[in-house]
Sequence to fold (277 residues):
Amino acid sequence: MMNCEKHLNKTLTKILFLLGVLVFTACSEEQKKDDFIARVNDSYLTREDFASLVDTSNLNQDQKAQLIKDWIYQEILFQAAEKEGITSREDYKKILKKSSYELAAAMLINDYASSEEVKFSDDDIVNYFETNKNYFRTSANLYLLNKAVFNVEDKAIKFRQLALDSDWKKAISVFVSDSSLVKNTTSSLIDENGIYPIQLSKIISDFYPEEISIVFAEKPGYYSVVQLLKKFSKETIPPFDIIKPNVEKRFLAEKKKKIIEEYLKELYSQNEIEIKK
Fold:
């Protein structure tokens, strides 16, 4: 069953890719409307399709333009492949059939797992943590951070100054309705390898609790300020209250895994299966 689970995980990963490709490239005849963003011959990318691909609220114009360009090149290549007869080749059809099998199987498993409710209490999560503490031992330094992202540099500077003069919570309450505040995360636990830019990770490593960073440009047009709340060194186990969401996520994943394994056993028993030696 462990091998089955590994196969399922790989299959589900493929599903996400296949679904993305399908959504990204498939525009029906009815979608050939005036609201299209891009067109390659008779294939259209509509605004609705584009919005379903990715959350565009935090993307600047250059990033949106790159996504559109990616779609155009993908469509050009697909149409060229059609002209060259690749989509009529037997090896293409075999791969397509295999992918359709994997897609259908993974969607069935996903539907079944989603329909099975996992009931648990806070005590279940605490007990799971106590029994499996080593699973949560850090492989890198972890930082508990507050972070605010603005699309106007002056507003980011004013926010930082207010946070220094009062506190982070007060500063957020002042700017929460300001349209320049595009992202606000509190008490976010981040691996040092996931901090960008890399220079910021080096700076934060020397911070003391509650210290606030300078304003920095995380990417063009976006200005960030972070506050270090706590630091957890490599090879330590953070307190339960800090990593409770991670513990719950792992707990649920294991429960879902068992549900899928039992479902596979049930399906196996319902079919005539013969393996010749």
The first strand starts at residue 36 and ends at 40.
